[in-house]
């Protein structure tokens, strides 16, 4: 099977799945004790950890009097892909994905219920395998 072919001659993908099969999904909640919420998620060979702190009292300079501030940080472990990056955080792609995560959470969290507070969300990709959106 060449790299450009998605299926082998017997109809299997590179990871052994048939054309119509989805990647296996595994989820474990409460993996850390310190955060207010945490989760470990696998889909195929992609592995992600997430931790949520809050809502808690926000800093005076950043807090909003009418709603909650949602702070998100997305990063990829330096060992998560075959490309080794020197800076796992703060690069343009991580900053962009942090912003998208923040926008998604702001649309589903009723931030007006938590004035003068802050929610911190940290997402770390331990192994990236699959989609090319996290390069």
From TrEMBL:
GO terms for biological process: nuclear mRNA surveillance; poly(A)-dependent snoRNA 3'-end processing; rRNA catabolic process; U4 snRNA 3'-end processing. GO terms for molecular function: RNA binding. It holds the Pfam family RNase_PH. Residues 21-131 form the Exoribonuclease phosphorolytic domain. One of its GO terms (cellular component) is nucleolus. Belongs to the RNase PH family. This is Exoribonuclease phosphorolytic domain-containing protein.
């Amino acid at each position: 099977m060449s790299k450009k072919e998605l299926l082998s001659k017997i109809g299997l993908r590179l990871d052994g799945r048939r054309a119509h099969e989805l990647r296996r999904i595994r989820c474990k909640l409460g993996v850390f004790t310190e955060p207010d919420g945490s989760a470990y998620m696998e889909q195929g060979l992609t592995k992600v950890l997430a931790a949520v702190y809050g809502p808690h009292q926000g800093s005076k300079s950043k807090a909003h009097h009418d709603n909650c501030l949602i702070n998100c940080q997305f990063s990829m472990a330096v060992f998560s892909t075959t490309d080794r990056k020197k800076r796992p955080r703060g690069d343009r792609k991580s900053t962009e994905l942090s912003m998208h995560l923040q926008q998604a959470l702001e649309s589903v969290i009723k931030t007006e219920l938590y004035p003068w507070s802050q929610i911190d969300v940290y997402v770390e990709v331990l192994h990236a395998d699959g989609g090319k959106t996290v390069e």
